[in-house]
Amino acid sequence: MKKTASSYLIGLCLIFLFAFGAAYAQEQNKVIDTTAILKELREKEKNLNIREADLNAKEARLNAMEQDLLARENDIKKIRDEVSAQLKSLGEQQNKELDNLVKVYSTSKPKSVANIITTMDIDTAVAIFSRMTPNVAGKILNELGKSNPEYASKMAERLTYQPVFGDEKAKRAQQK
User: Over 50: is that where the pLDDT of 87 sits?
Assistant: First the structure.
């Protein structure tokens, strides 16, 4: 019986060791799996931190670019305002000069003014004529008709015709 009890005891121990060994091996696999998962999560967290840092850097660059664009926009607005002021000043100066020319031409001999007018840009000539008194403009236009009838006709047309938006006659007059 001793052999049987001892065989029985050894068998029981073997079963016990085998059962606990299998459970222990399973527990070790769980620890290994948990460790692998923890390691994988740490790697993903590291990658996410790197991506977050990249995104933060890009956001900072975008904010800097936005500030730069806003500063440039303000500079452009200032330049535009300066240009507008200069254009207004230039227009005022041009108006003064045209008024001076009107005074000079109004007191000059119509024949001399007619000869000068034919060498001018027609828009400038029209601006001068439109500021003259009708009596003086008529005398100069009369002399202009004698020396250069075609130019006098264009002048008369430009002086009398006020273009309407989209009007075909206005478009043709502008092209001449």
Answer: yes
DSSP state of 87: H
Domain ranges of the chain: 108-176
Q: Residue length, the chain? A: 176
* Torsion sign over Cα 59, 63, 65, 66: positive
What pLDDT, in 10s, does the model give residues 110-148? 999 999 998 988 888 888 988 999 899 889 989 998 989
Q: For residue 83, what is the DSSP state?
A: H
- Percentage of the chain modeled with pLDDT above 70: 73
Q: Are 87 and 117 in contact (CB under 8 A)?
A: no
159/14 Cα distance (integer angstroms): 124
How far is Cα of residue 132 from the mean position of the Cα atoms in its chain? 45
CA 103, 108, 110, 112 torsion: positive or negative? negative
**Helix and strand counts by DSSP (H, E) for the chain:** 6, 0
